[in-house]
Amino acid sequence: MKEKVAIIDSLGAHGSSFHFYVFGQAKGLSKSGVDVSVYTNNVTNNPNYDEVKFYQYYKNIFGSRSKLLSGFRYILGSIFSLFHARFSGVKICNYHLFHVNILVLFDFLLAKMLMMKVVYTIHDVISFENANSSQKISNFIYNNADKILTHNNFSKEMFSKQYNKVSTEIDIIPHGNYLPFLNIKTDKLKSRERLGIPKEKKILLFFGIIKKVKGLEVLLNSLKDVISVNKDVILVIAGRVWKNDFSIYQRIIDDNKLSDYCIIHNKFIPHEDVDHYYASADLVVLPYKRIYQSGVLLMSMSYEKAVLVSDLTPLTEVVQDMKTGFVFESENPKSLSDKLNRILSDTNKLEEVRINGFNHIKSKYDWLEIGKETKKSYQSIL
Predict the structure, then answer these.
(1) For the chain, how big is the Rg over CA atoms in Å?
(2) Is 84:40 a contact under the CB 8 Å cutoff?
(3) Rama region for 60: left / alpha / beta (φ>0; ψ in -120 to 50; rest)
(4) Are 78 and 64 within 8 A, CB to CB?
(5) Do residues 177 and 362 make contact, with C-beta atoms less than 8 angstroms apart?
(6) How far apart are CA 70 and CA 176, in angstroms?
(7) If DSSP codes are grouped into helix, strand and coil, which group holds residue 179?
(8) DSSP E strands: which ranges in 304-349?
(9) Phi-psi category of residue 366: left, alpha or beta, with phi > 0 → left and psi -120 to 50 → alpha
(10) What's the maximum distance between 2 C-alpha atoms anywhere in the chain?
(11) Strand locations in the chain (E)
């Protein structure tokens, strides 16, 4: 008899590409013989996978000016989702956590009241932006959860240090690639024309939500030394600011006279344009200062793009310098500019690394294999 699992994710496609993660997880589990149901919001479209059930009980939980109204709608969504899951025979609820609050506690208590096992996939061990994450609630739910999943050894170690009184077993389940979901554009010039990017330039891409921990200022502070050697370089910044102030970055651009070398698309990037941003890029730069796992990294490599990352452990667990990507010293603009100049001077090496990186992400981060590992983790608590 198949294990019945509910993936309960209220975020979905709202403001990001997180739904691809959930869809990859669901598809991998389904192919591994798990009976999967996805419960999400009404802005996330049904992927229409065979043998994956899809429900949209979280209605209009985003966009309201009233936090009270949003919270009420969230609670209704959770009640409908959990009761539906329980009466459908679901034994395990898998939640994805970026921070912990009273709504997370509500979900946990209701799932337990309905006699279901609770598994948490931890994306941010310590929330980067949400100072309201409750340590007391976190300790309670983590200690009483049936299983905790992290994406890598670094996150597991950080979790164990942060929550040293939590005894719940932790399994490492990698973040999968984005290959099943991408429409890779092969006409670089056509994509650049669509986005208003110069056709003849070397394009560096900084992609994704602009948070303080993403280190955009490190990249901008390195750019002056890059363009002194490579006059044909353009940095494309594509993504909206979140709990951050873009004027900090604009000041660096103005002070260093970088305006002619930066294209700034400080906005939400529609899904239909994401393919074109990646098609336009020669190199994707991730100058992160703190991270637990990067979806942008895995997406960039899935788009067959070479990547340059800071030497944070979660990134170097994926990227091997000069083989499957490029690495520089975190928060060091000089190290970054030196590496960029070296990369831009050797297009043959850039192409070799790009191909190696794609092959690596394709084989090691396949959702079917991840589904098999996740199934084993579920089976250990039944």
Answers:
(1) 21
(2) no
(3) left
(4) no
(5) yes
(6) 31
(7) helix
(8) 307-310, 326-328
(9) beta
(10) 65
(11) 4-8, 35-41, 52-58, 92-97, 117-122, 147-150, 170-172, 202-207, 233-238, 262-265, 283-286, 307-310, 326-328
The CA distance from 73 to 90, in Å, is 23
Q: Give residue-wise pLDDT tens across range 318-357.
A: 999 999 999 999 999 999 999 999 999 999 999 999 999 9
| Pick from 45, 24, 216: nearest CA to 121 | 24
User: Which pLDDT tens digit goes with each residue over 274-298?
Assistant: 999 999 999 999 999 999 889 999 9
Give the whole-angstrom CA distance, residue 357 versus residue 164. Answer: 36
**Predicted TM-score of the model (pTM):** 0.88
| C-beta neighbour count of 66 within 10 angstroms | 9
Would you place residue 15 in the very low, low, confident or very high pLDDT band (cuts 50, 70, 90)?
Answer: confident
Distance CA 24, CA 178 (A): 8
Instruction: Give the pLDDT confidence score for residue 233 in this predicted structure.
Output: 97
Sequence letter at residue 365 = Y
How far is it, in rounded angstroms, from Cα 203 to Cα 224? 15
Domains of the chain: 4-176+366-379 (3.40.50.2000), 180-364 (3.40.50.2000)
Backbone φ, ψ for residue 193 (5° rounding): -65, -40
Q: Quote the DSSP letter at residue 14.
A: T
SS3 content of the chain, % helix, strand, coil (to 5): 45, 20, 35
